[in-house]
Amino acid sequence: xxxxxxxxxxxxxxxxxxxxxxxxxxxxxxxxxxxxxxxxxxxxxxxxxxxxxxxxxxxxxxxxxxxxxxxxxxxxxxxxxxxxxxxxxxxxxxxxxxxxxxxxxxxxxxxxxxxxxxxxxxxxxxxxxxxxxxxxxxxxxxxxxxxxxxxxxxxxxxxxxxxxxxxxxxxxxxxxxxxxxxxxxxxxxxxxxxxxxxxxxxxxxxxxxxxxxx
Length: 214
Description:
13 strands, alpha+beta, single chain
């Protein structure tokens, strides 16, 4: 099982249309890119409380979703190129239903471990100038996901992101995102505890799940 990384993207702080400073607008890089424990070399995060860190070092968004969004919100010209969703890896071949929390992937000489999906936030709405983006993503589960870096290395566009280890096949990114955020999906205590039992689960989602138990 694998995906092809069409672009590796990094971003620098810039002003959004409403004046807020963010690094969400990422641009494709040329040549080899170093992947360290805190992400791609040359990438930044302005809001370090909600973005970045070891368990959110690398963000992937599926290229398969771009045609859907271009149809749904054609006025957003930024969707013409990779990096519009703030992703570091713009990859084709895998979506949220096909990858699972704890999956390990080889990309170039780097080893990545999937920690959690991405929670949509207001920065994405400001970036696209669409106040309904969070609602839309919660409904359709096209959230993207995060990796921690197990082994540092480097990678280039065109290389494969190849699955090398899978420890469980119940909690896909799609299913775990639905449990946490989709109001149409009931969440039982048993399911919450089951998801919490996965060692690779990112700390941000772990905290949100633990809060549901109290």
